[in-house]
């Protein structure tokens, strides 16, 4: 029979390493007031006559704008969270400001199950930006993208084309680790999208490399699978209307599971190297 240690090890390997649910629960939130019993007919009669409907509408207080730090309340509609994300991201004039806005933003539930915000690594002045999907366990613990096993493979792929972490910029479409490495939901993706798009716009690289299907989808809006997309240059359109070439390629985590596919990623990286050289020489 497996020991507790072996079972825990199995869970950790499978990504089950946090006793959390997918959605945060605010246990400090005030209990809703108990429902008031319907008034007795006598009580109703004792009240002053009710005001006309129009007057009551006039007196109703205007709804307060939703501050970024209370967006995690279940009562805040999803649209308000997306709208606030757009507003904050658009208002960030620098990457530092964007980082601060994102750190203060409470509209994405992933923030409450993650240990750290994983904003970026590398050189913000780099001519080339690599984009993954979402941080994993090691990235969450350190607050840096691509530092686990797939990151180590990515470092070797960089080296193969003469790059390293000082000559590239690396980020993810989602900056918080989804619990147990599950796939981010469409809503989480939509809420994080404005921040990610603004990050690309502020880095303003000459080339983008999408690592895996979700990053390729976020950058090119293509619905094709990554095995069809990879190896073909696409365009990313920024909010200000600029077009940046994107090379979709295979995610390093996929390559670790399917080493025979590395030859395709190698071709894509050589392609990237040639285009980067042409753009920067
Ligand atoms: N996979 C990703 O897509 N991003 C990371 O940062 C790590 C693993």
Report what the structure shows.
With 281 residues, this protein is α/β, with parallel strands linked by helices. The protein has one domain: Uracil-DNA glycosylase-like domain (Uracil-DNA Glycosylase, subunit E, 3-Layer(aba) Sandwich), CATH 3.40.470. It contains twelve helices and six strands. It has a six-stranded mixed sheet. The structure holds uracil. Uracil binds at residues 132-136, 139, 145-146, 150-151, 172, 253. Residues 132-136, 139, 145-146, 150-151, 172, 253 line the site of uracil.
- CATH architecture annotation: 3-Layer(aba) Sandwich
| Broad CATH class | Alpha Beta
The major pleated sheet works out as: 6 strands, mixed
* CATH superfamily label: Uracil-DNA glycosylase-like domain
- Number of self-contained structural domains: 1
Mean pLDDT figure: 86
Total number of helical segments? Answer: 12
What's the N-to-C terminus distance? 62 Å
Strand order of the largest sheet: 1-3-2-4-6-5
From the structure above, extract its key features.
single chain; 281 residues; alpha/beta; 6-stranded mixed β-sheet; 10% strand; binds uracil
Quick description:
The chain has 281 residues and is of the alpha/beta class. The protein has helices spanning 4-13, 41-46, 53-59, 78-91, 95-104, 137-142, 149-160, 186-203, 213-220, 226-229, 252-257, 262-280, and strands at residues 121-122, 128-132, 169-172, 207-211, 234-237, 243-249. It has a single domain (80-280), classed as 3-Layer(aba) Sandwich (Uracil-DNA Glycosylase, subunit E).
